[in-house]
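Technical annex, item 7. During the second reporting period the consortium partners agreed on a shared format for inverse folding records so that results from different sites could be compared directly. Each record opens with the tokenized structure and is followed by the designed sequence. A conforming record, contributed by the partner at site C, is shown below for reference.
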């Protein structure tokens, strides 16, 4: 005999605030965190939707590619100087 599986129907109802934090007016002004940024596609989409974004990637080649694609600025991490990160 076969196995029966039940399907789940998901209905998208639009944006709603995810919390009741002070200052959360429900306007959807969020920050997109991309901890595995890669070539920067998520950051590009966030920018196109007028969202702030935090791009993180440990791979120098991907970070440089994303820097070219997105034009964002590098903020030194873990006490490193910007010159060390770019050299």
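Designed sequence (site C submission):
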């Amino acid at each position: 005999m076969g196995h029966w599986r039940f399907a789940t129907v998901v209905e998208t109802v639009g944006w709603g605030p995810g919390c009741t934090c002070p200052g959360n007016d429900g306007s959807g002004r969020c920050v997109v965190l991309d901890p595995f940024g890669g070539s920067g596609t998520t950051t590009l989409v966030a920018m196109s939707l007028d969202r702030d974004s935090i791009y993180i990637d440990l791979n120098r080649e991907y970070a440089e590619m994303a820097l070219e694609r997105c034009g964002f600025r590098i903020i030194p991490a873990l006490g490193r100087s910007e010159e060390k990160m770019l050299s």
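Residues 80-87 have pLDDT under 50 and may be disordered. Residues 60-70 form the longest helix (11 residues). All partners now use this format for quarterly exchanges.
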